Amino acid sequence: MALAFLAPALISLVVLRLAPAAISLWESLFHTGILNPDPVFVGLDNYADLFSNSGFQGALLVTLVFTVVINPVQVGLAFLLATLYTRKAAGARIWRSLVIVPIAAPPAVSAVVWSVIYRPDGLGNSFLSMLGIPAQPFLTSPHQALASIMVLLSWIGIGYWMMFLIAGINDIPEEIYEAASLDGASGWRKMWSITFPMVRRPLAFVLVADTVANFLVFAPPQILTKGGPDGSTNLLMYDLYNRAYALGDLNKAQAEVIILVLLALIVVAVQFRLLRSAD
User: Which of 125, 151, 233, 255 has the fewest CB atoms within 10 Å distance of its CB?
Assistant: First the structure.
């Protein structure tokens, strides 16, 4: 009976996840040319060619920098906002709703909205001019383009991850906070000694899920920058898309998919190890 109830989920997992992964792994070991459409087994040559390719090396470096910066920023701000908006204060629900609103828009729509904000005469530079700051190039600068995409993704993601942490914080018994208040604990002390340890599990889920989501970012670089300028926003997800559909090298693109999955698994495993050691 249990297997019957689990069967739809298990079949979906095999058909939609495991089988495509196995096919990608198998086809990444072959090479198909324009003059020779028949697949030729080349073993790990596709992987060796990728790691010797400067474009792939740049995409790998950009992806690692992107992941190292954006994950702690998003999770940290989501945790701080969740702690703030679970307090019984006037207007907390209204502000919490405003933070969650960007979730309603798909990433592609959000990218279009922010493309207008990042225009030379857009809202971004208008706001900076009010502060006496000169106009910034944003998406046209190799030094600012990746940070600009991080701001866009954080605008979407922080509210989403905040909801999970709010649910975890609401499960903490109020009596613990009352006892800490009687002992004279400050708000920061309560957050560090009570809230943070007791939401360790939701926080671990958010960190891992956010990491995987950021590894799979595609729409903003594809819509806003096309991986540029100078490859500064060429994340692995966009690079493999470009390799598959612009260059037509499906076998190397599938090899890049396997590398991306392995990279995500390694980062997630390290995160789990760090969280376990912290316990």
Answer: 151
Please indicate, yes or no, if residue 44 is contained in any of the structural domains. no
Residue 252 burial class via C-beta count within 10 angstroms: exposed 0-12, middle 13-18, buried 19 and up: buried
Q: Is 133 left (phi over 0), alpha (psi -120 to 50) or beta?
A: beta
> What gap in Å lies between CA 222 and CA 154, rounded to an integer?
17
In degrees and rounded to multiples of 5, residue 40 shows phi and psi of -120, 125
**Do 227 and 242 touch, CB atoms closer than 8 A?**
yes
Residue 33 has pLDDT above 80, yes or no: no
Residue 87 belongs to domain with CATH number: 1.10.3720.10
Q: What pTM did the predictor assign?
A: 0.88
Residue 257, helix vs strand vs coil: helix
Write the DSSP symbol of residue 172: S
CB 185 within 8 A of CB 139: no
Q: Return the number of other C-beta atoms located less than 10 Å from residue 193's C-beta.
A: 13
